[in-house]
Structures are given as C-alpha cells and as structure tokens.
Write a structure and sequence with these properties.
The protein is an alpha/beta fold. The chain contains 13 helices and 12 strands. Helices cover about 35% and strands about 15% of the residues. The protein has a 7-stranded parallel β-sheet, sandwiched between helices. The structure holds glyoxylic acid (GLV) (2 copies).
C-alpha cells in the first residue's frame, strides 16, 4: 500500500500510517509550502491520500489519483477538498470531527475574552514599560458576565453544530443570553434551555458578541459582509475561528477602522497566511495563526483518527468518519474497485 501525505501529521498518526504501508510525505520540513506539482506527483502513485487543510485537493488532483482508494483529511473542515468531484470519481473522503470541539471552543472563548478585555494591547503596554500608575480608565473593556449594570450580555452563535453548542455551554457559565442561528436545526434550538433561535438580522442587532461556527460553502461565503457588520452594535465584537472567507475581511477592516463594531478576534483569514491590508495595524483586533485546535492532546487525537481513516481506505473498508458515505453505494465506487483490485 502506498500512502502519500502532503505534509507531516503528528507522530502518533505517522506510526499508524507506517504500519499500514509505504508512507511518503511531500516534505519533511514543518513550515514548507508544498508545490502543487509535488501533490500531483504524489497522488499519481498513491493508494491513499492524507491531506492537510493547506493543500487544495481539487478535481484535477483527485483525477490524477487513478489507483486512489480514498482521501483522509487531517482537519474537521474539508473545504480544501472538492467532495462533489470525489463522490463523482468514487472516492470516499474523511475528516476528524468531535475530537477538537472543546479545544476549538476554548480558543474561541480565549479570543472573546482577550478582545473584550484588551489583553493583548495591555500586555504590549506592559512590555513597552508604559505602566507608570494605575488609573480608573486604563484599558476599559466590555463585560462578558453581567458586570456593572447587571444585565446579561448576549452571545450570538452562527452555526449551532458541535463547536457552536460548545460555545453555548461556556456562555451559560457566564450567565450570558444566547441566540443561535442555524435554520436546519431550529427545532433542536427551540427545545434547548438557555438559548433562543434568532434570524440573522436579530442576532446581529442584539448580540454583544457574534461568533461564527458554520462550515465554509457557497451559502456561507461572505455571510458576514459590510451590511451584516453595519447591523451589529457599535459596542459588539466579532469572533471567527471557523473559516476566513465566511467574513468579508476587507469590509471588517473598514468596520474596525471606523468603529462600526468595537473589535474582532480572528483565528482564520480569507487568504491564509495573508491578511487583508490594514488588519495587522489595528489595535482592536486579536489575530492568531489558525491555532484553535492546537492542543497537544487534540492534535495527537486528530492524527490517530486521520490515520485510522486512511487505513480503512487502504483496506477498502467503510471509513469511520466519511463525509460522503453515499459514495459506497455508487456505481463510480464499484467501477473504481474493479479497476484497482
Ligand atoms: C481546522 O481548521 C480544522 O478544520 O480542523
Ligand atoms: C482594584 O484593584 C480594586 O481593588 O478595586
């Protein structure tokens, strides 16, 4: 079995992959950018593709994999893969759901608290030796819990899946009022305590914090655009740890500059690793390099999950975390099996 990985995953996963076949990795260098030609060359020879979210697995890449049995993505998000094309070509695709839910919500909460309480600029101020005397208006921020005026703050959650619900659980510990927008599961939201369903406009208008937890697709591209930002309170904060293109980043820079909203916390960007012009110069934004799931335990767990999916692909077994399970019943899959067996 030839297993091709675009980049290295943590050791726990590599061990499993090496036990299952002949593993090759496009580059051993941790932060090297993998050229498309290397991805194509690797896929041509491979029985199983292990992909990271940094590499685009589009129709051409998938089509190059003539003997490919499946694709195992090392991430819960899989917008880097053309799943529709994969299904048409008879290829199962897997992701790593569940294991990073709390780790991602923890970092989202960290962004929420750091942006509201000016943690990053205050730290910079200390390091620059600017702290001369305590004062009542030093780094005034917004409340997260009820705070001075006794009213609960409102958390608006866009996308109420695993990570969105983990944010709701955290918000309850802070006595927040929670609004959630996720039309397909409106009934589930209506049946839960401490959260109300809200349409987008009401959620944007009433929330003190808006946090995005949808996946990226045609319907969510630029879901938060200039018009959406205009609807938010001038004291509100936007948090995005989902995927960059869900937010129109240039419109966000304008909104932050003109104080249409109070601040933002971002772990993802429209054109990673680049940032929209002007973003990095702003003080009312906390920016992180896509580290929401980056805890040692979680990254190891993602690696073993990804590797187990890869092994299932290799053995032509139904993979545990398949995002297009209908593929197994398709003619395209059957004819691929005939071809590669
Ligand atoms: C990270 O962004 C993931 O989708 O797992
Ligand atoms: C602040 O340090 C206080 O004691 O109120």
């Amino acid at each position: 079995m030839k297993i091709f990985a675009t980049r290295k995953i943590p050791e726990a996963g590599l061990e499993i992959l090496k036990g299952a076949g002949d593993l090759s990795i496009a580059t051993e260098i941790e932060d090297a950018i993998v050229p498309r030609e290397s991805v194509l060359a690797g896929v041509r020879m491979a029985d199983v593709l292990v992909s990271l979210l940094t590499e685009s697995v589009d129709r051409d890449v998938l089509a190059a994999g003539e003997r490919l049995r499946g694709v195992a993505n090392y991430a819960v998000g899989y917008n880097n893969i053309d799943v529709e094309a994969a299904t048409e070509l008879g290829l199962p695709v897997t992701n790593t759901p569940g294991v990073l839910t709390d780790t991602t919500a923890d970092l989202t909460w960290t962004l929420l608290m750091s942006i509201a309480r000016n943690v990053v600029p205050a730290d910079r101020y200390m390091r620059a030796g600017k702290y001369k005397i305590w004062g009542p208006s030093l780094f005034l921020g917004g409340d997260i819990s009820k705070g001075g005026d006794g009213t609960p703050k409102v958390l608006g959650i866009i996308g109420f899946g695993r990570i969105g619900q983990a944010m709701y659980r955290r918000a309850r510990g802070f006595d927040m009022r929670v609004l959630a927008y996720d039309p397909p599961i409106r009934d589930l939201i209506d049946g839960m305590e401490g959260v109300s369903y809200a349409e987008m406009d009401r959620l944007l208008e009433e929330s003190d914090f808006v946090t995005v937890h949808t996946d990226l697709n045609e319907a969510t591209l630029h879901l938060i655009d200039a018009a959406a930002l205009q609807k938010m309170k001038s004291t509100a904060y936007l948090i995005n740890t989902a995927r960059g293109p869900i937010v129109d980043e240039r419109a966000l820079v304008d909104a932050l500059k003109s104080e249409v909203i109070a601040g933002a916390g971002l772990d993802v960007f429209e054109d990673e690793p680049k940032m929209a012009p002007g973003l990095a110069e702003l003080d009312n934004v906390v920016i992180l390099p896509h580290i929401a799931s980056a805890s040692r335990d979680t990254r190891n767990k993602m690696a073993t999950m990804c590797a187990k999916n890869a092994v299932a692909h290799a053995k032509l077994e139904k993979a545990p975390n398949c995002v297009n399970p209908e593929v197994y019943d398709s003619d395209a899959y059957q004819s691929r099996l005939q071809r590669i067996r």
